[in-house]
Design brief:
The complex is a heterotrimer of chains A (153), B (574) and C (615). With 153 residues, chain A is an alpha+beta fold. Chain A folds into 2 domains: 55 residues, no CATH class; 82 residues, Glutaredoxin (3-Layer(aba) Sandwich). Chain A is built from 7 helices and 4 strands; from the N terminus they run ααααβααβββα. In chain A, a hairpin with a 2-residue loop joins β3 and β4. In chain A, α2 runs antiparallel to α3 and α6 runs parallel beside α7. Chain A is elongated. The model of chain A has no long low-confidence stretch (mean pLDDT 91). Chain B is built from 19 helices and 19 strands. The model of chain B has no long low-confidence stretch (mean pLDDT 95). By secondary structure, chain C is an alpha/beta fold. Chain C is globular. Classes of the chains: A alpha+beta (153), B alpha/beta (574), C alpha/beta (615). Chains A and C meet through α2, α4 and α5 of A and α1, β10, β14 and α17 of C. The complex binds flavin mononucleotide (FMN), iron/sulfur cluster (8 copies) and FE2/S2 (inorganic) cluster (3 copies). One FE2/S2 (inorganic) cluster binds next to α5 of chain A.
């Protein structure tokens, strides 16, 4: 059930700064990203200055201030995947999608992110698209994958 | 409890609870620091203060590591010096080579350590981050390229001022300092107190300047330039010329300003006297009319902005008197210009202030006439000193001169506005006269002269039992405001100064890294008060004649028009 | 019937831990479900965690009533039908059998070897991983049936907190999170500091690239960890315990959530547990993603809702930690050892391992070995045994080059040191660190400069930025390494000089970063560089002087040429070359002008006739 910002915020007690991260996580889970309105709202609820919340949200990799693409592509850049060529996969994706890591395509279909180790090191390079894993991807298999996703989109 | 430690082969005394740094400090051994702020808990970020401790593999940060009995310390061994030098070189690898064009050239801690450590070439080449400067604030200029991420501004703003306008943004080498959402400072909760400038080791935070406009005015023969100098200025300007803190150069300063080309030179202390009289009258009438109490002072623009954004519900309790700077500005454009027959566009009004918030204040809509600011340019103490040097004036060699008529004289009460508690002291003196018709016989109130962040003083004057509170350092105000909102009702007047210590420690004062000169500066102000003949604002002869000629009496209609202002709720990113 | 031992209908176990899911375990699960339905077989399907044989995933076990449980490897969805057909007909396909589990109750299959005898398991000694991949992680009943939580209850009823601290110290257990500090000592400090509130934090941040031990423990046997946490909390006098799990570990998170609810149901969480007067509240915290938040002071700040920047120690968390109260931070693996120690006595634990490193250590083995996965070995096992006996040696008959141990800021260990024992002291003496347990094996096709660059890039990105040496230093080291793996446009001038200078400065810079950084991240950041320079200096020199990457990894250093016999003159490469380095006429063989080539590899990629090759 979708929730409003107020509903999410009111689940947490007022003025308890340590609720900050879970609350931000809830908001992001619900809306897909954070924005100024959310941060100011959270700030007045938890009695935290906006500058602090923004500082914290930009410290952690998890928080975003832009929407994700319809397909959110995570490329594992952990050690094992690196050895099996994940760097090239990432570069290939950047080339195909014409975006840099951390960005979303203009049509809003794809966003690309590099993460460290997804815990399947034996099967690298690992790519995860909207929660679905793809193992041992190569430059050519990634191309096919993107084409398939494009067709679906 | 004292015990021995060994430093550089000599035994020195250390105390339980000392950090290595405080033990070394007390024994006169200097270790460079970049992130440490005296009196705040250590944070250990810059690693400049590292020392070698026998038996420890890593170098230890002196600022945060407790000293222990067994310690054998080397503070300047080759290994330590190399580490410090490397750290500076690393900082410089992401720093613009801009010293020659930098506000802090000659007074920059980074530059000083680079020099001390004999850095003579750029060691690490590589990418530098790209940043945008933030010119949006009326008071401050932020240049993140020069920021070394020491975090001192953040901590002073958060831990001392409790404003928290700034924080780190991002992580790692992409990190920078800025307000929420990395938007302009003008949209942030910054109250323009400038305390962050005072602790910034580099030129990353400076006051906003407009030197060109002033130069043009000074050299334009058809423009009459007027300057007013804050009560504080005369006791702090000397520091900029390498003289001892607290040396009073009032009349030398006036002379130097005329040499600079100012056509008229005034002392804002005169307007301070006016403020005292006007505000005392306002308070008395409020007490008599049984209006909601207490009344808050209004001369600190940083405090006003704080109230407008954080406590709009108390705005009706703030005195409507303009600050002395703006009272003077208003007199100059509305009275002086008529007396001297100078047209609006030909009067260029400058003030020299210890404060960067005054730059913001001058731009408030309420402080303009016909869309033009009453005061055109505000110089900080630092800027004024630079101007004096630029024009080749040797301030120690000039002949002393007096301020100009018609606002020539001042009382020492007006001078007291420079220090926290001074306004209240001065106000009580005049209030006493207004209530009893007699002069106050003990004008010096010791309780209000301590260095505490919050002071209270209760006195019976005539039939009235009056309570006064003095807050300095905006971080100390919210507690008192809470008490009042909860119903505390024994206070009648509350003086708030945003800077810890008052204007003597204002954000426009001379910067001495790691040293606090406000005590010496305050002492100088009190000395003025001790030895001066006129200690009561209402006895200032120039002021008396101004009332005769123009203002009639305190709180008159004329006064309302010229000397009062209004406040309104302000939306910022809190 | 709590233990799944005497069963009346067939049980099918499928490993659906993260690695299983990546390998396609959910499809296998679906296929199995369909198969059972279609064939009307009343069997139970149980999702289990991972047993550690990543490269064998998806793994499916079958247990027929009365018969021993058998494990099968690489059971893709398409193979389910034939496999189960075979099994239910009493035939086990040789090529997919891993082995069978043996006990006194069940009849063993006669054609199948024991799973604990296959080389992968034979040399392991499993304490914390013992039941991972075997039991149902969502069932507290199964955990309890195997003796779980008995130890905790015994502790709170019969033993003083102090006694427990002493026993843990006696066991010789040292922190598995990397530091290797005596767990019992740490507990005692916290136990002895007086405060109205104390906290225990379980550090499951685990954001090392290439480490997944903690995740596997939680996914496979969450109650083991929770029992360890409960005991630890009691021992230090903490009534509140936090478990800090990386946000990406969604499965681990869900398993923990279920497990916590079950604990509550069984009265193992709450106030005055079983009348003992002991209170325990457990909280789950989702770490929002920053490697440095694995560092304990940063982790604490992050739980407090602050930026995860480390603080100077002292004061140590055991004196002043979360919300300024005494706090013990322990790693998942550390805590998962606790129930064993207290159940079997400190001496039993103490008997495993070497003089100063007791017990076992779990490693996440990845890279170029035949088998990748999780192994748990007694301290003191040699690298050779782990890599060549347990993991089956190097894949595809390639040559072993080095192994990186200790995570991104660990060290590489070259071939001639393969006899090194893994325990805290031996590793330390060899200039390496235990770290949290990542072990990456590299073969001849790995470029050491590239690997070092990879680690430095990681550390650069993960540096919190608080202190100068780490923030600015890691970045300059990374840049220097970039420079030597990049093809320079103009070999003559400034750039070459910079490349040399950068390298000359590396070692001095590394020393300062190590000596002056605030937290462990910076202090160990130079390790990969220092160790690679020590053992593989020649590879660095080749990159710098000969501009050559012998492993062929550094793409820009490759030299391309066109095989005139194969080139058809299709001009595809000529059109694509970004630096106009290719000359030739249509339908004539083309040539690459070496001086102009920037090594981008574009021609290599576009040539349909495999005419472009790498020298
Ligand atoms: C940069 C950095 C990252 C760390 N990451 C982890 C981690 O992911 N998991 C962990 O248990 N300990 C990690 N540690 C070690 C912790 O700081 C701490 O020592 C450990 O959790 C203590 O638990 P133990 O005594 O059980 O080992 C890390 C340390 C550093 C410096
Ligand atoms: S901040 Fe200091 S070092 Fe930087 S340019 Fe200015 S004076 Fe030079
Ligand atoms: S200090 Fe050196 S660089 Fe600066 S102006 Fe003087 S000579 Fe030039
Ligand atoms: S001027 Fe004052 S309020 Fe504004 S950022 Fe600086 S310290 Fe904070
Ligand atoms: S702006 Fe100045 S005080 Fe603030 S972090 Fe940067 S260098 Fe330090
Ligand atoms: S205390 Fe004085 S210097 Fe500070 S902001 Fe207020 S008026 Fe300016
Ligand atoms: S060493 Fe690195 S991660 Fe640790 S505090 Fe310093 S900058 Fe942050
Ligand atoms: S590698 Fe790139 S630059 Fe070199 S010849 Fe091929 S396409 Fe041209
Ligand atoms: S693409 Fe291949 S075949 Fe075509 S011209 Fe180039 S080298 Fe020759
Ligand atoms: S390194 Fe990619 S999954 Fe572990
Ligand atoms: S002054 Fe000690 S670390 Fe900065
Ligand atoms: S078997 Fe599951 S982690 Fe590998």
């Amino acid at each position: 059930m979708p929730q409003t910002l107020d509903e999410l915020v009111s689940r947490y007690k007022q003025g308890v700064p340590e609720s900050l991260l879970p609350l931000l996580q809830d908001i992001q889970d619900e809306f897909g990203f954070l924005n100024e309105e959310a941060i100011i709202r959270v700030g007045s609820h938890l009695k935290l200055p906006a500058s602090k919340i923004y500082g914290i949200a930009t410290f952690f990799d998890q928080f975003r201030f832009v929407t994700q693409g319809r397909y959110h592509i995570l490329v594992c850049r952990g050690t094992a995947c690196h050895m099996s060529g994940s760097f090239n996969v990432l570069k290939e994706l950047e080339k195909i999608l014409k975006i840099k890591e951390g960005h979303t395509t203009r049509d809003g279909y794809f966003s690309l992110e590099a993460v460290s180790c997804m815990g399947a090191c034996g099967m690298g390079p690992v790519v995860k698209v909207n929660g679905e894993f793809h193992k041992m991807v190569s430059n050519s298999s990634i191309q096919t994958l993107i084409e398939q996703l494009r067709k679906r989109a | 409890m004292f015990f021995d430690i060994e430093v550089n082969g000599k035994i020195i005394k250390a105390r339980n609870g000392d950090t290595i740094l405080s033990a070394l400090d007390r024994n006169g051994i200097k270790v460079p620091t970049l992130c440490h702020i005296n009196d705040l808990p250590p944070n250990g970020a810059c690693r400049m203060c590292v020392v070698e401790v026998e038996g420890r593999q890593a170098l230890l940060p002196a600022c945060s590591h407790p000293v222990e009995e067994w310690m054998k310390i080397k503070t300047h061994s080759p290994r330590v010096v190399k580490a410090r030098k490397t750290n500076i070189e690393l900082l410089l690898s992401n720093h613009p080579d801009d010293c020659l064009y930098c506000e802090r050239n000659g007074n920059c801690e980074l530059q000083k350590f680079a020099e001390d450590l004999n850095v003579r070439e750029r060691k690490f080449y590589g990418k530098k981050n790209k940043y945008k400067t933030d010119p949006s604030s009326a008071s401050l200029l932020r240049d993140p390229a020069k920021c070394i991420l020491c975090g001192r501004c953040i901590r002073i703003c958060e831990e001392v001022q409790h404003i928290t306008a700034l924080d780190f943004i991002g992580r790692g080498n992409k990190m920078q300092v800025g307000p929420a959402f990395n938007r302009g400072m003008n949209l942030s909760s910054c109250i323009n107190c400038g305390q962050c400038i005072m602790v910034c080791p580099t030129g990353a935070l400076t006051e906003k300047q407009h030197p060109g406009e002033l130069q043009d005015a000074l050299h334009n023969p058809s423009v009459k330039t007027v300057i007013q100098c804050s009560p504080t200025l005369s006791v702090t300007l000397a520091e900029e010329f390498g003289l001892r803190a607290g040396k009073d150069m009032e009349n030398l300063m006036f002379a130097a300003l005329r040499k600079l080309g100012f056509d008229y030179v005034f002392d804002t202390s005169f307007a301070a006297d006016l403020l005292i009289v006007e505000q005392a009258a306002e308070l008395l009438s409020k007490i008599k009319e049984k209006q909601p109490m207490p009344m808050f002072s209004s001369c600190c623009p940083a405090w006003i902005k704080y109230a407008e954004q954080a406590r709009p519900q108390i705005l009706n309790l703030i005195s409507t008197c303009k600050s002395p700077q703006q009272m003077m500005g208003s007199l100059l454009t509305n009275h002086f210009s008529q007396v001297e027959m100078i047209s609006d566009e030909n009067l260029y009004s400058v003030s020299a202030m210890p404060c960067v918030a005054k730059k913001f204040e001058a731009q408030r809509e309420q402080m303009t006439h016909k869309g033009i600011t009453d005061v055109d340019t505000i110089l900080t103490t630092r800027e004024l000193a630079r101007l004096i040097r630029l024009n080749g004036i040797d301030i120690q060699q000039v002949e002393p001169e007096l301020a100009d008529l018609p606002y020539r004289s001042r009382s020492s009460a007006g001078k007291l506005l420079a220090v926290s508690g001074g306004l209240t002291e001065a106000l009580i003196r005049t209030l006493h006269f207004m209530i009893t018709g007699k002069e106050f016989t003990q004008p010096k109130i010791q309780e209000l002269r301590s260095t505490k962040g919050r002071k209270e003083f209760f006195i019976k004057i005539g039939e009235y039992n009056l309570g006064f509170a003095v807050v300095n350092g905006i971080g100390n105000v919210s507690e008192l405001l809470d008490e009042i909102e909860k119903g505390r009702n024994d206070l009648h007047y509350i003086e708030v100064m945003a800077c810890p210590g008052g204007c003597v420690a204002g954000g426009g004062q001379p910067i001495h890294p790691g040293e606090n000169h406000s005590r010496a500066r305050s002492k100088a102000v009190y000395e003025v008060d001790e030895k001066e003949p006129i200690r009561f604002a209402h006895k200032n002869p120039s002021l008396i004649s101004l009332f005769d000629q123009l203002l009639e009496k305190p709180m008159s209609l004329k006064c309302q028009q010229l000397l009062h202002t209004s406040y309104e709720k302000r939306e910022v990113m809190l | 019937m709590l233990r799944n031992e005497r069963i009346s209908k067939p049980h099918i176990y499928i490993g659906t831990g993260t690695c299983g899911r990546v390998a396609g375990a959910y499809d296998t699960l679906e296929a199995t479900r369909k198969y059972l339905e279609e064939n009307n077989i009343p069997a139970r399907i149980i999702e289990v965690g991972c047993i550690g044989l990543c490269s064998y995933e998806p793994i499916l076990d079958v247990q027929l009533p009365g018969k021993a449980r058998v494990s099968f490897r690489n059971v893709e969805a398409g193979q389910v039908e034939s496999l189960l057909d075979d099994v239910f007909n009493g035939h086990l396909p040789d090529d997919q059998v891993i082995g069978q589990f043996q006990n006194d109750i069940h009849d063993p299959w006669d054609t199948v070897g024991r799973i604990d005898r296959i080389p992968f398991f034979a040399l392991q000694h499993r304490i914390v991983l013992k039941d991972c991949g075997i039991i149902d992680p969502t069932s507290i009943e199964e955990y309890i049936a195997r003796g779980g939580y008995q130890t905790y209850l015994k502790c709170i009823r019969n033993y003083t907190a102090e006694k427990i601290c002493d026993w843990v110290e006696e066991s010789g257990l040292r922190g598995r999170g990397g530091g290797g500090y005596s767990t019992g000592k740490k507990w005692l400090i916290a136990h002895n500091s007086i405060s109205d509130q104390k906290y225990l934090i379980c550090n499951a941040a685990e954001s090392d690239p290439g480490a997944f031990m903690d995740r596997a423990i939680i996914e496979g046997n969450p109650h083991l960890l929770l029992e360890g946490i409960a005991i630890a909390a009691y021992a230090i006098g903490a009534t509140k315990a936090y478990i800090y799990v990386m946000a990406e570990y969604d499965l681990a998170w869900r398993r923990l959530k279920i497990a916590l609810e079950k604990m509550k149901e069984y009265g193992l969480q709450g106030y005055n547990l079983y009348g003992s007067g002991v209170d325990l509240q457990l909280y789950l915290v989702k770490g929002p993603g920053a490697f440095v938040c694995g560092e304990e002071t940063a982790l604490i700040k992050s739980i407090e809702g602050k930026r995860g920047m480390p603080e100077s120690k002292p004061p140590f968390p055991a004196i002043e930690g979360l919300f300024k109260k005494p706090t013990v931070v322990n790693n998942v693996e550390t805590l998962s050892n606790i129930p064993y120690i207290l159940r079997h006595g400190p001496q039993t634990f103490n008997a495993i391992g070497t003089a100063n490193s007791k017990g076992t250590k779990v490693f996440a083995l990845s890279g170029k070995t035949e088998i990748t996965g999780l192994v748990e070995v007694p301290m003191g096992t040699t690298l050779k045994d782990i890599i060549f006996r347990i993991a089956g040696g190097i894949k595809d008959g390639k040559e072993f080059k080095a192994t990186q141990i200790g995570g991104p800021s660990g060290s590489c260990i070259p071939a001639h040191q393969l006899d090194l024992q893994v325990d805290y002291e031996s590793l330390w003496n060899a200039g390496a660190i235990m770290g949290s347990g990542g072990m990456v094996v590299m073969d001849e096709n790995t470029c050491m400069v590239d690997m070092t660059k990879f680690f430095m890039n990681f550390l650069k990105k993960e540096s919190c930025g608080k202190c100068i040496p780490c923030r600015e230093g890691t970045r300059r080291i990374h840049e220097a390494l970039e420079n030597i793996t990049k093809r320079s446009v103009n070999e003559g001038g400034h750039e070459t000089l910079e490349r040399f200078k950068g390298i000359m400065q590396l070692e001095g810079l590394a020393e300062v970063i190590r000596d002056t950084s605030l937290c462990g991240l910076g202090q160990t950041a130079p390790n990969p560089l220092i160790s690679a320079l020590t053992w593989f200096r020649d590879e660095f020199e080749e990159h710098i002087f000969d501009r050559k990457c012998r492993a062929g990894v550094c793409k820009e250093l490759r030299v391309y040429y066109i095989d005139v016999d194969k080139c058809t003159g299709c001009v595809a490469c000529l059109r694509k070359c970004p630096s106009n380095a290719i000359v030739g006429q249509p339908r004539q063989p083309h040539f690459i002008v070496e001086e102009k080539c920037i090594g981008c590899g574009m021609c290599f990629d576009v040539c349909k006739f495999v005419a472009v090759t790498v020298k």
